[in-house]
């Protein structure tokens, strides 16, 4: 099993294409629209080889667990990595336009935390989950849980 760090912004499959004297990997538009990545930003890219024929298998990403909640049926679009009522430790990375703390979890998914400051690591309860952002409340400012 491949261990995937929390800092991973996105994971998708794509072909490496030739474009003159360079090679191009196209990023699906859905990765930008879900907020996993942003145009104009710089990212570190890792490539995993495809298993072909008799070559030794390269580490492959593990399939996500099937979501049995009918309200979140598989639409081919990645589902949010958090659930309402979930308790999580997060780290506030920046401030949003309204002054709320912004934390990122798996795949770069954004969690908004009121009154958070960059560097804070509170324990939060996820209150509202949307396709590309969740809203949480602090249950312990020191990140120790309740």
Give the DSSP E fraction (strand runs of 2 or more residues).
25-35%
Low-confidence stretches: 52-68
What would you report as the Rg, rounded to the nearest angstrom?
Answer: 18 Å
How large is the count of helical segments? 1
Number of domains: 2
- The helical percent reads under 10%
Task: Report the principal-axis shape.
Answer: elongated
Strand line-up in the sheet with most strands = 3-7-8-6-5-4
Sketch the major β-sheet: 6 strands, mixed
The secondary structure category is mainly beta
For this structure, the quaternary state is: single chain
Number of beta strands: 8
**Mean pLDDT reading:** 77
Helix and strand string, N-terminal first?
A: EEHEEEEEE
From the N-terminal CA to the C-terminal CA, the straight-line distance is 32 Å
InterPro entries: NA-bd_OB-fold, TRAM_dom
Pfam families: TRAM
Domain TRAM: 81-140
Region (Disordered): 50-87
Brief sketch in words of this structure:
This protein is mainly beta and 146 residues long. The chain contains 1 helix and 8 strands.
């Amino acid at each position: 099993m491949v261990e995937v760090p929390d800092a991973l912004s996105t994971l998708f499959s794509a072909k490496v294409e030739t474009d003159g004297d360079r090679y191009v990997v196209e990023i699906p538009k859905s990765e930008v629209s879900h907020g996993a990545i942003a145009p104009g930003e710089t990212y570190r890219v890792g490539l995993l080889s495809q298993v072909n024929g008799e070559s030794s298998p390269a580490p492959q990403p593990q399939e996500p667990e099937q979501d049995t909640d009918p309200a979140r049926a598989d639409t081919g679009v990645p589902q949010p990595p958090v659930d309402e009522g979930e308790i999580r430790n997060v780290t506030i990375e920046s401030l949003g336009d309204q002054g709320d703390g912004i934390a990122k979890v798996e795949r770069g998914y954004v969690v908004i935390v009121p009154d958070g400051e960059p560097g804070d690591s509170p324990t939060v309860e996820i209150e509202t989950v949307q396709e590309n952002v969740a809203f949480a409340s602090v249950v312990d400012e020191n990140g120790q849980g309740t």
